Amino acid sequence: MAYIFRRRNKRGKLVGNWRLGYEVGTSRHQITLKTKSRTAAAKLLAKFILERDRVVVGGRPRIAVSEAVKQFLDEHDDLHPSTVAWYRRRLEAWRKWLEVDPQLSEVSTNSLRKYRRWRERDHQPRTVAGDMRTLRAFFNWAFLDAELLDRSPLNRKTCKVPRIVRAARVALSREEREQYERKLRGMPLFVLYMFGCYAGLRLSEIANLERSDIRNGEIVVQSKPQRKFTVKDYEARRLPIEAELLPVIERLPSLGPAVPSPRGKFSNASELGRRWRAAMQLLKLPPIREGKRGVRFGVTSHELRYTYASVQIQERGVDIEALRDQLGHSSIVTSQIYLKHFKPLRKPVRDAGEQPRAADDGSTTSGSDGGVTIDEP
Hints:
Elements: E1 2-5, E2 19-24, E3 27-32, H1 38-51, H2 65-75, H3 81-98, H4 109-122, H5 125-145, H6 174-184, H7 189-198, H8 203-207, E4 214-215, E5 218-221, E6 237-240, H9 246-250, H10 269-283, E7 288-291, E8 294-297, H11 303-315, H12 320-327, H13 332-338, E9 364-366, E10 373-375
Antiparallel strand pairs: 1-2, 2-3, 4-5, 5-6, 7-8, 9-10
Helix pairs in contact: 2-3, 3-5, 7-11, 12-13
């Protein structure tokens, strides 16, 4: 801790020059300043703090940005490897932009705003939002957990994260599922579609799936499979086998991956995603959506999980708690997001010979082509 003070005489009047006191560990030190002005003493105190390394000010040690980033990554090593890699890439990009290695306490809000504007020149808003979320997590850790800062220079008021408009998710209807099955049957990606649509597996989980994971009438999703590609979950789960999956499981090879690569080996999630997107564009399956990059056909591989949730809730009658366990979500809030993208089930069509239903007030409802008119009494 560093501070300035001045002695008082017996009458309580300040006398002599100002003195600078500071503590390092348990030892205390004093330096006599050759000034009687409080303003000049305060300027000397600020200069002393900036020039001396490892001086404790307000109980918070000074530390360089590179060392703080290293400590942040070490303390978050227990997170998923993809999350740690995300943090490392974005923090390294920020460090390169700084060009020098300043003290963490010298990083200002204005500097972070300039970095955000610089990233917005050549990157998409989604990428910039990820950069700012990473920096926010880093500075919150330095302020709240490590106590390296008196305040965080990055918060919602001082540096806003770009707003991202996420694309609407789509859950396939029953007619669309039948169309997908007809088009994809006989293709290697048919297995991917069936396990995504009727088991709710993630793309990385399908990449690690093999015949030995299906036993005793259940699909065992391993938490850390002994293969090259890891999955997002940390907890293993068991899924019931739907009737639609039985013919597909019988045709799976006894050894090797369920969805092999062109070379017959395990594929990673990125490769499977590219193959799936190419198949959608080739077959021109519904739905058809227009975006900045042109017309996009079909659903994404992750939207197959939305279809699985729609089937379980609307057709199987599964409650939200059981759906959370089947999808492998840690929070029920994430499962509730899936409910917003369900298509309403179509009402049964009335036969032509059926009489119109009588209303409570004596009127009857009739119409054609789906329209409804009311005949007043």
